[in-house]
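Protein fold
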Amino acid sequence: MIAVPAGSTLTLRCPGEPDLALIALAEVRADFVAELPPIPVLGLDEPGTRRTGILELVTSAGVTWIEAELRGGRLTVAGDLTTDVVQRRGAARRPGTYAATGTAQVDSEPGRRLVRVTGHVEDVSTGGLLLRATADNGPHLPAGIVRTLLHVGMPWGDMTAAVTTVEQIADQLRGTYEWLDPVDSAALRDFCVPR
């Protein structure tokens, strides 16, 4: 079963146009990606506007790309998968609340800038984590975070990790490990994998 969660950010890449960031308004489910019913989305297009392109689709099984059409606030899968799922969510994981501080790298014009962040990790796995945080210089996380260097308070001590952003929705950031100390990697595996 494939599920597109409500609140997911879906990116539609149309040839010759800027990418469109769309928010799924309701959860949609199907046995296979190609069988997904139309997804109600929030976008900035006028009613009646029709766009086609490649959709970066975030599902319960991971992230994939597929041809899609946007019309009247509904996103419809229009073709076969262009690639396989690239981010598996089958990694051993453990929910909880773990204090986190760090520095986020924001990709903005005219260049990249660094922002201090404070918050907590809500879900940790051997492949990545889910961070809920705010910026030290404002009430929210800035948009466009590409990677984050985090110090997370884990039961065995401080875990330091470089995290590449997979999805960012408001103050919630989901990412995969770009770098993790080998000692922390072994401790994390022991922590997440049930015995």
Notes: The two ends are 27 Å apart (CA to CA). Residues 182-192 form the longest helix (11 residues).
